[in-house]
Design goal:
The chain is an all-alpha fold. The protein has 2 domains: 150 residues; 171 residues. The protein contains 9 helices and 2 strands. It has a two-stranded parallel sheet.
Length: 323
């Protein structure tokens, strides 16, 4: 059994491969939608009743995404098995790694319902948002695997830590609003000529309404990111590292604002919408990274040790009779 053991370095590499593959499948899924290939294979799990697609553009793109999803499922299963074989054994990594193949299976099932319901906007939105949830678990798996158990960063700065966590919540709201805007937009995901339901909660003005809500929340996120960046800079007493996640997050949000404005003025060309989705996924990952960097709320181990020693000395002093 020992020869099948997995060391920490190898497992860490596998965890990051899983994170990269789960990000890639988001990009290819967006490609399916934006090339109008969402119903390229109108049946699931087979394509037109066959195990392989017909040789034409839309079925190949849609079925290719399905095949890539299967490959990603294999990677996540390998990561889970590796977690079981990890030496030293870590229960936290086992649970996190188990969530990845479970998430892929959930995506496959939801994808089947999405096809069956002819790309109804609620299903398509849920499909993307579930991917963002899976990325949370994939990132935390890779992040925890980077550190030995019990030595991940901690912080005593509650204000900064909760401020960064608040940014992640705002980022999640921005993503949700973005999916609503896409669900109301011209890119239904279906082939040209197919009737695909669109989001119509505000009637014929739904797209404009959704875009404005998305832009407003994104602007609030951008301002809040700058304020939290300034807060951290004041806490550190100097300039921040260029690769500080809050700095990267601010740059990505600015880039998203530029791309979003241009694509809206150009009537939402598919290529720019795809770039917008890719940047949104990267922004989400960086927001999670920022939360991770701030660490768990609590005193660093060395401070806890000092407090414990001080407590022991104080108790010992009280127990010694006065001379």
């Amino acid at each position: 059994m020992g020869r099948f053991a997995v060391d920490e370095k190898r497992f860490r590499t596998l965890a990051y491969v899983a994170l990269a593959s789960l990000s890639l499948i988001v990009f290819t899924g967006a490609l399916v939608r934006l090339t109008d290939s969402g119903l390229g294979c109108p049946t699931w799990p087979r394509c037109y009743g066959h195990v392989y697609p017909p040789v034409s553009l839309h079925p190949l793109i849609e079925f290719g995404n399905r095949a890539l999803s299967g490959f990603v499922g294999v990677i996540t299963a390998v990561v889970f098995i590796a977690a079981l074989r990890l030496k030293p054994f870590r229960r936290d990594l086992v649970w996190l790694s188990a969530s990845l193949p479970a998430g892929v299976i959930a995506q496959a099932v939801l994808g089947g319902f999405t096809v069956r319901e002819k790309l109804a906007p609620g299903f398509v939105m849920s499909h993307f948002l579930l991917s963002m949830v899976i990325l949370i678990f994939a990132f935390w798996l890779a992040w925890r695997a980077t550190y030995p158990q019990g030595v991940r960063p901690r912080t005593a700065d509650r204000l900064l830590a909760w401020s960064v966590r608040g940014l992640a919540v705002l980022c999640a709201l921005t993503l949700f609003a973005g999916t609503a805007a896409t669900a109301a937009g011209p890119h239904s995901g279906g082939n040209v000529g197919q009737h695909i339901k669109r989001l119509t909660i505000e009637g014929p003005d739904t797209l404009q309404w959704a875009v404005h809500q998305h832009a407003t929340i994104a602007a609030i996120l951008g301002v809040a990111t700058i304020l939290v960046w300034l807060l951290k800079r004041s806490r550190t007493g100097g300039a921040l590292d260029p690769l500080e996640p809050l700095t990267v997050l601010a740059i990505l949000i600015a880039a998203q604002g530029l791309v979003g404005s241009v694509q809206y003025e150009l009537k939402l060309p598919a290529e720019m919408v795809w770039v917008h989705v890719v940047l949104a996924t990267m922004t989400w990952l960086v927001a999670i990274w920022a939360v991770a960097v701030e660490g768990r709320i609590g005193k660093p181990p060395e401070v806890e040790n000092q407090d414990a020693i001080a407590t022991i000395v104080a108790e010992w002093s009280r127990s010694v009779p006065a001379s």
